[in-house]
Amino acid sequence: MKKKVISVVLTAAMTAALGTVPAMADDVIKVGVFEPLTGENGGGGVQEAQTAKYANELRPTVTIDGKEYTVELDEVDNKSDKTEGVTAAQKLVSDGVVGILGSYGSGVSIAAGPTFQEAKIPAIGISCTNPQVTLGNDYYFRVCFLDPFQGSVMAQYAYEDLGLKNVAILEQLGDDYSSGLAGFFEKQFTALGGTITTTQEFQTNQSDFKAALTEVKASGAEALFAPSSIATAPLVIKQARELGLEIPIMAGDTWYNTTIIDNAGADNCEGVAVSTFFDEADDTPAVADFVKGYKAWLNEDKDRISRNGGNDKIVGNSALMYDGYNVLLDAIEAAGSTDGEAIRDALASSNYDGVTGNITFDENGDANKDTAYIDVIKDGAFVFEKTVTVGGSEASTEG
């Protein structure tokens, strides 16, 4: 298995075996938070970074070989850009972080991966769902499900639950998340017997989608699948409705964010369906405790509410960051060292019961997850529709 690698570097192996750690100033270890705090994906990145701060407040220390160390978050802005992402990754390496959390956005995660791998610093992707993030990289793990599964889930929902036979696709050129998810949706939808009436493409930072949406309307599509960013979503939704395109609109996990409803308008968003990692209405004890605690923390400070999108709703990527933080700290303690190879090997053996479910990793470092939530916007709010698992759907539960 790729991730369970025995160290061949004598000094690292001795360090891990003896349970010693590199000298840290003031008994502090640094954990990198690699997120888009600005740019196209800034909304989601800020939410993830803020959740890391909450998790750090709840668990501010880690015990290594019987000694307690303060965990300091080292936050960088990859600016939703692949080139800037590499620069941000290099800064984290030079800062001496022992592990990295992030990023929101697959493209920047893929671009930064070789930097983390070369430095032998383990990273945990939070909501970056493209398979290429971890593939061939011993040091990249992730706590979310992948786009092949997510694309299949939405295709199955469209074909079997909504009874759709003809769907159009709108995807972003050069964006690994958008193009990847669109491709996986198309593969599964056509395999089920459906037809893709047209695939329209748009450029990063484009704001006028009317030409593409006019083609969608002319194609006779019964629905539109439009995997894209939080920033793009309300523009697509509003312009589609302005053109009289009243067909269902579907997307992936990035659209599970109430800022989209606020910016596009509740009436325009009615019926929009998305897949996501988490539903705050889940009444299991771990989820209920997390939701109660995080909402209380958000409401202590109006700036926290603002960074969360203007309300205290908890989106899937925030829940994933909470889990990712704890998985990393558990691995550091299990390794008994801040050595990157030792932490990586401990991550490979992780078995953590989190708020987004049980987390273990496969040979590629991907979380072994087989369940997604589908939510539909109704009366200005996301409403849980059903869970979908590999091999079939579970019973629908609304409310």
Kindly describe this structure.
With 399 residues, the protein is α/β, with parallel strands linked by helices. The protein folds into two domains: 10-145 and 285-368, 3-Layer(aba) Sandwich (Rossmann fold); 147-276 and 372-393, Rossmann fold (3-Layer(aba) Sandwich), CATH 3.40.50.2300. The chain is built from 14 helices and 16 strands. The chain has an eight-stranded mixed β-sheet, with helices on both faces. Strands 2-3-1-4-5-6 form a six-stranded mixed β-sheet. β4, α4 and β5 (123-125) form a beta-alpha-beta unit. α3 runs parallel beside α4 (106-119), α5 crosses α6 and α13 (316-335) packs across α14 (340-348). The longest helix is centred in the C-terminal third of the chain and has 20 residues, at 316-335. Residues 1-23 and 392-399 have low confidence and may be disordered.
Please outline what is shown here.
This protein is α/β, with parallel strands linked by helices and 399 residues long. It contains 14 helices and 16 strands.
Give the overall average pLDDT: 91
Tally of helical runs: 14
Distance between the termini: 42 Å
Structural shape: globular
| Cα-atom radius of gyration | 21 Å
Structural class: alpha/beta
Beta-strand content: 15-25%
CATH superfamily of the largest domain: Response regulator
Q: Tell me about the largest β-sheet.
A: 8 strands, mixed
CATH topology of the largest domain: Rossmann fold
Give the strand tally: 16
* CATH structural class of the largest domain: Alpha Beta
The helix content, as a percent range, equals 40-55%
Strand order of the largest sheet: 8-7-9-10-11-14-15-16
Summed up, the domain count is 2
Known CATH architecture of the largest domain? 3-Layer(aba) Sandwich
String of helices and strands: HEHEEHEHEEHEHEHEHEHHEHHHHEEEEE
User: Which regions contain 5 or more consecutive residues with pLDDT less than 50?
Assistant: 1-23, 392-399
